Q: What sequence folds into this?
């Protein structure tokens, strides 16, 4: 699973940067073509859902996705599938 | 002489305020006539915002801008939606820090947002920089009139900053001079 | 000493109300009229007046009627959907002869339609939108200047005729900013207070009763039921009803000429534009650009009661052309009064007629 | 001076049916008002449409008989425009709680300084006996020919939740208590709501097994449960029958109010 | 086998609705229409339909629109004050092309007026009472028989044209009891369901889109905002708005002739009565008593769209006489279409014109 | 299938401002609905007018975007005419509690089997920031330029007093809790009311000292008081600050309901 | 032949029901035409109640009663308001237990309320007694028609009582015979 | 003080017969000219207000007056004034 921000939807509100428990979203720096500063992902492999969705067969955490008011965050399948090896940070 | 001016950019840049200030300058301090209109509605959210102004020495009858001869453009989307079709006879002042395209008419490249942020420390005054440039490029209202209208319209405590921004615009327009496609 | 301003139409409307001594405003936000309420909300409290945002437009209309009975000059502003909701209480105001001013900054309808675009689609509604027979006064401004002046005038008419008065603006006039010259002072023609000893609904020679302000000892009963001159309900006597309703209509319709406010331009022309509100501006442009006297123009500021006499001033007219931001509502009314073709030039969608469009209509041979 | 002086005697007898409780409630209200030393010229009665709403027409002061359900919105205009006026509203359960429900809760929320007397006969009287939002479940009316299937409002609960400063409920049987409650309502700054349960022999009684006026008054009396007693019953885990209603002062508080005379 | 009954007009209305397959009724009591609701409240539950008494008329109108989108034939009934309150949602029904039937048993207005007396004062309101431009269909019954038949017909028209249809009755017709002959069966012309693959607001050649019933998988978005053929809001494009509103009006006005329901009696006459609703009865009496063919009569059952062609059937007409229980509302409309005098014969207060009164109007020389 | 499948993707991005919480609340609602195994063809979203009320337009099912304040009356028609349909309403504080207050309390009273999600941003967003009946005292809006002088409604209290079967309040910060509350609401027969406090950076935040979206969300979080905690505080006689609001499930009961699928 | 019948009395006497029953008898069982109207409204409360009926062999055009030729009067107030002006050519059936005045036309004195209470034990059926008398006096509908219409309209379980009341009225009218002023 | 029923107002509802603590009102027997059966007074001297109003200078009891929905009950002055001598009945 791979965390992605859909640049055609994101409006740069930065809510994701606040609510992700792993602090994966960082404020972006440069406006894109639509004039929007999309957040950047900081080591998205740490995301619980990326790592464990396959394992549990359901969406885990998902707070960023639920919170993103613009339906800009989701996960894509990765081929080939590789269980992530990053330890959870406390 | 009737002049029709179109302003465009994105929300938060003060596009509408720019038109109102310029109209106010014309009416209150240059004793001209002016009509300002704009696009309203939720559809105006997010996308390009637009405002229009007519300035004339005589009372204005038909109040809508149909053939603008002056443009002040502050975003690429604004350019595409409202500036790309400017006729060759027009004059356009564009924020070169945000607009990548160039029109078919005479234009002035003003890096207003960049200057506002870097030189003046507040990108919010980019539109005032643009207004300064606009009157330099077009002489549509006098500098004293514009300055008074600006001072009428900006929050208390920001007068100096705004005057500086206007002067900066005048300076930039004078420096850069007009370009032709 | 007059003063120049560069105001939005809605601001001018609010300022016109304040200048006319409006002491009470109740309203509910709705695009494109909201700025009227917002401006008054900021200004009225400082002048010891009352601004209240009600729970809806029905309540807003009710509140201004209530306020009016305490003697206050009272107003509300709205647009299509809110206007539709006010209809029942507008009828109550007409029936109880309550002076009040209702501003409708018209937008595209029907229903929610085009909230931010201009229209003149409520012109018949303001005349016929409530049940039963009654008459009202409606004015239509074409400039920011008129937003100010006609609003102020609305209060005088409301008090003079004891009737709801409608300022039927449109989004274009309401939202545009333009130069306006403020007069030194707005003349206020106050209501005529009921004299002691006279029945509260006994009319004078103009068919208008004196106003029994609440709190002044009149002990008046005000009801939307059919009532006699004492104000008491009398709902099954056909004569009382017929007499009352006829008076309510006649007091306005008989004063048609006194209320009428219009300009007749080039009365000898054969083709004559009739227009009100924003489209006036296009007609003016066309006449200005032609710079001849071959095209006539009846520019209406009073819409209701309809100034039918004004049509007769065009002695040589062969056709009337009526550009409106609706499907031809006032054109319908003109058809009633004339025997020459009435060409409706409807324009829907929010844009104003272009001068070219009216020019084109002029060259069509019918 | 007695409360009888507040009646517009040239309009009596009123249009109410024989045995209708509305007249009783007007008496109690005027008796309370008569104790307030109010100037008649500074007192205004306002109402909507319904039998109950005809009340202001029988009172000598200025009065405004408005449109169905809207009395409180009109009253808001009157009171805010001239806070010197004492404003009292007569309304019915249909007028107040069916079509007028929104103005009711908003007037409570604003806590505007007026007093509202609701003559709750649990039916639409004026139009001939249709169900109202206070018609008890199972009761008959012309629009609930199989017994009302909807749950009724508790108007007092609603007024409290919406913010009224004073709320009380009595019945047309409890004339003295009602008079007193109205008086406290008039004295309390902010919105005062007094619900008076009352009989409509013509349209409620007749369809709901009350042959005589007296039977329905008796039923009001026996189904009324004093708040204090209710509280005691709850404490003791006793069961309160569904068809009982609570009477007494239900709230009296001091939330910020609007339109208070200064 | 037909059946004879002795029914009240309001009962006949309710029975006509039931015969037409009305499955949903939402209403709020108001004199003189209440018996319609009461009768349906007793009958509909037994036929698996839904009767609900709403909190007010606004909600009643809303509820029948909601019900209509589930595919139900839905109706409400009211009178003046309630009708005024329905105006906003009537505009919504027009804009969203929601089939529904609104019965207005007219009483004396304006305002609370004369609750128990007859009038025809809401004829212009039913056409123009909501904001913006739109069109509707309005029928007017003159007999108890027609209360039944025209109510049933209203449902068919509503479904066929996807428009609110008004049965504009009056207290006389609503409250009187008279002989009525029940037909065996009422023909039901159902709505045309939207075909798969077609956009939900894409019209057919008659300018009417297929109906996307909720629950049938269309995934339709219905909005009172200006919308494109997908049903999506599109509120700042003038063309989309102009196109939509014009279609809403044209689909009705173009079908004027198909919808028209009227009788032309004595087409060669020079004096012609035009009438609808209860006053029809007086005109009939006058014609019957005279027993000659010198007086013409245009008896309207469809009021809106107005059957202007019908006026032209009277080739020799020198004046139209229009008895109405209002100040001349339909007379206004007739004035638009003809060049001969239109004599309005208004009657207010609840009584019907007497035959003598119409006789007297006939002998006046103008 | 995930809740994302419920979006009408051709209409995204929606018209909401950057940082507007409405999008979050739609996510939570659809996530709850996605767990209900509802057939899309049998689900209808209904709304009135306002930013919040635009929500149904972004969802693939049948949807009805009605007139301002009237969503619940339309919904009553839909649900009673066809109880098989699952009916969910999106509304705003202005739509529901200002103009729509009467339909709100009556839908609660009838306890009609629908679920209402109110996006309470304490302001009229769509029309540019006027005060609403939930604007807190003292807050600024274009029609309360000197700070709101009226007391706000507690919408949940109102719903309870009027008779709703299920009432809960959360915020746009509490996404998981909100999702769960909506789910319980959907499952509970009768009227379910879920109030979601949310940020309107454009019209509320900007005028009330919230420079950034994040500040307003933070304020929602810090002013939200769990019901259980509130109860504890009351028990211990602790003072609950005026500007706090209660979150959690506020009632869940089993009054008779209308329009329940059979 | 068109007959116009006016009914008056006070609330609770069943004045309107009487008109409805008679109309029903004419329409459903005598194959005639009939139109029934009445006075509505709160003003009708308390005071005299009134109902009117037209019966004709042909369809009825003008539906309002303007010149009644038949009267059924059950209270003094009703007489004063609706019966006193009866033309000499009319026929009036009056409840002599409640109406003190007498008209200028032919009339029948029927002590209906008294008989209903005393002989039949229920004053509620006084109007049925009156109807029996009315058809006897006027032959406006046949007895079988009236009886069927009464049975259609009265509560279950009261059929016998009502039939008895009707017969009583027929009997009383026959006994008393008409009077002339 | 003298207790009277205003026959022009009374509608014969008989509420007074129920609520007077002294049972002074009795159901009437004959309809008056308006067809209304007005209650009769049974020894009205027993009325507390009749007896004691003068003494206390205010209306006493008055439940019948407050209750009468038709404003038909009131007290009239009697000339000459005579304090009643009937004992209160328990
Ligand atoms: C807008 C509107 N709808 C309906 C009516 C009809 N109407 C008159 S009174 C009434 C009900 C009154 O009931 P309630 O308020 O309980 O008063 P009551 O007559 O029982 O005292 C109704 C529905 C009206 N006058 N106006
Ligand atoms: C009858 C009517 N009155 C007023 C309006 C204007 N209006 C549109 S949205 C709105 C307020 C919406 O506020 P809220 O429900 O809180 O929604 P938000 O936009 O804040 O989400 C108003 C007043 C309208 N459309 N219709
Ligand atoms: S929450 Fe969504 S819209 Fe906001 S910045 Fe993050 S990805 Fe973009
Ligand atoms: S109908 Fe009922 S409420 Fe109305 S006057 Fe009669 S008894 Fe009273
Ligand atoms: S105005 Fe407010 S509620 Fe509306 S979209 Fe913007 S942030 Fe959201
Ligand atoms: S209570 Fe009044 S109206 Fe009723 S019987 Fe007694 S005196 Fe008459």
A:
């Amino acid at each position: 699973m791979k965390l992605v921000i859909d640049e055609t939807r994101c409006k740069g509100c930065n809510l994701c940067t606040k609510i992700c428990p792993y602090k994966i979203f960082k404020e972006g720096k440069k406006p894109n073509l639509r004039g929007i500063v999309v957040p950047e992902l900081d080591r998205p492999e740490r995301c619980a859902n990326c790592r464990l969705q396959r394992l549990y067969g359901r969406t885990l955490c998902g707070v960023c996705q639920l919170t993103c008011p613009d339906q800009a965050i989701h996960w894509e399948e990765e081929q080939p599938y590789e269980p992530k090896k990053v330890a959870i940070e406390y | 002489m009737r002049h029709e001016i179109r302003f465009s950019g994105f929300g938060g840049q003060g596009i509408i305020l720019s038109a109102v200030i310029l109209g106010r300058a014309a009416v209150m301090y240059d004793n001209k006539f002016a009509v300002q209109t704009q696009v309203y509605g939720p559809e105006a959210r997010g996308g390009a915002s637009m405002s229009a102004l007519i300035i004339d020495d005589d009372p204005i009858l038909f109040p809508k801008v149909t053939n603008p001869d002056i443009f002040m453009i502050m975003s690429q989307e604004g350019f595409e939606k409202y500036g790309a079709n400017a006729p060759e006879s027009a004059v356009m002042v564009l924020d070169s820090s945000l607009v990548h395209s160039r029109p078919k008419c005479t234009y002035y490249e003003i890096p207003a947002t960049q200057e506002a942020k870097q030189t003046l420390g507040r990108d919010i005054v980019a539109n005032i920089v643009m207004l300064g440039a606009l009157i330099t490029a077009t002489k549509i209202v006098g500098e004293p009139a514009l300055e008074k209208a600006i001072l009428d319209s900006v929050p208390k405590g920001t007068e100096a900053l705004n005057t500086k921004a206007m002067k900066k615009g005048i300076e930039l327009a004078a420096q850069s001079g007009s370009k032709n496609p | 000493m007059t003063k120049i301003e560069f105001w939005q139409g809605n601001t001018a409307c609010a300022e016109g109300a304040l200048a006319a001594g409006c002491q009470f405003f109740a309203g509910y936000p709705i695009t494109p009229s909201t700025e009227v309420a917002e401006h008054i909300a900021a200004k009225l409290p400082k002048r010891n007046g009352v601004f209240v945002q009600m729970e809806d437009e029905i309540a807003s209309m009710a509140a201004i009627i209530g306020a009016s009975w305490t003697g206050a000059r009272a107003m509300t502003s709205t647009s299509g959907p809110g206007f539709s909701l006010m209809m029942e209480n507008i009828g109550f105001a007409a029936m109880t002869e309550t002076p009040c001013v209702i501003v409708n900054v018209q937008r595209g309808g029907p229903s929610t339609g085009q909230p931010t675009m201009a229209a003149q689609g409520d012109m018949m509604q303001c005349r016929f939108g409530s049940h039963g027979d009654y008459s009202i006064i409606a004015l239509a401004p074409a400039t920011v200047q008129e937003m100010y002046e006609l609003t102020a005038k609305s209060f005088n008419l409301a008090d003079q005729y004891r009737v709801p008065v409608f300022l039927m603006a449109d989004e274009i006039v309401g939202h545009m900013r333009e130069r306006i010259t403020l007069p030194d002072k707005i003349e206020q023609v106050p209501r005529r207070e009921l004299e002691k000893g006279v029945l509260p609904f006994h009319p004078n020679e103009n068919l208008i009763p004196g106003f029994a302000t609440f709190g002044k000892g009149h002990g008046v009963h005000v009801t939307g039921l059919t009532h006699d001159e004492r104000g008491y309900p009398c709902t099954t006597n056909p004569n009382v009803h017929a007499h009352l309703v006829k008076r309510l209509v006649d007091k306005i319709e008989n004063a048609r000429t006194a209320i009428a406010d219009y300009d007749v331009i080039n009365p000898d022309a054969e083709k004559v534009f009739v227009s009100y509100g924003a489209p006036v501006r296009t007609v003016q442009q066309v006449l200005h650009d032609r710079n001849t006297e071959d095209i006539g123009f009846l520019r209406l500021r009073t819409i209701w009661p309809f100034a039918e006499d004004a049509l007769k001033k065009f002695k040589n007219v062969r056709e009337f052309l009526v550009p409106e931001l609706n499907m031809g509502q006032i054109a319908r009314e003109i058809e009633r009064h004339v025997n020459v073709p009435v060409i409706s030039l409807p324009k829907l969608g929010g844009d104003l007629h272009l001068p070219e469009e009216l020019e084109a209509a002029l060259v069509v041979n019918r | 001076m007695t409360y009888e002086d507040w009646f517009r005697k040239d309009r009596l007898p009123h249009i109410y049916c024989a045995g209708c409780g509305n007249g009783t409630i007007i008496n109690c209200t005027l008796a309370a008002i008569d104790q307030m030393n109010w100037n008649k010229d500074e007192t205004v009665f306002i109402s909507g449409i319904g039998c109950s709403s005809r009340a202001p027409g029988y009172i000598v002061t200025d009065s405004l008989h408005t449109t169905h359900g809207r009395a409180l919105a009109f009253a808001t205009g009157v009171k805010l425009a001239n806070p010197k006026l004492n404003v009292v509203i007569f309304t019915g359960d249909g007028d107040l709680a069916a079509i007028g429900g929104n103005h009711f809760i908003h007037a409570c929320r604003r806590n505007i300084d007026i007093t509202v007397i609701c003559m709750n006969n649990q039916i639409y009287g004026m139009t001939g006996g249709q169900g109202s939002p206070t018609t008890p479940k199972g009761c008959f009316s012309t629009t609930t020919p199989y017994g009302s299937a909807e749950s009724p409002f508790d108007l007092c609960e609603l007024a409290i939740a919406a913010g009224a400063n004073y709320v009380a409920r009595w019945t047309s049987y409890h004339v003295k208590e009602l008079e007193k409650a109205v008086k406290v309502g008039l004295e309390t700054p902010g919105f005062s709501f007094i619900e008076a349960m009352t009989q409509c022999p013509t349209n409620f009684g007749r369809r709901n097994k009350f042959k005589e006026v007296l039977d329905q008054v008796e039923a009001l009396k026996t189904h009324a449960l004093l708040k204090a007693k209710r509280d005691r019953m709850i404490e003791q885990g006793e069961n309160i029958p569904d068809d009982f209603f609570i009477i007494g002062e239900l709230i009296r508080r001091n939330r910020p109010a609007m339109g208070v005379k200064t």
Remarks:
- Chain E has a mean pLDDT of 97.
- The first strand of chain E starts at residue 3 and ends at 8.
- Residues 144-161 of chain E form the longest helix (18 residues).
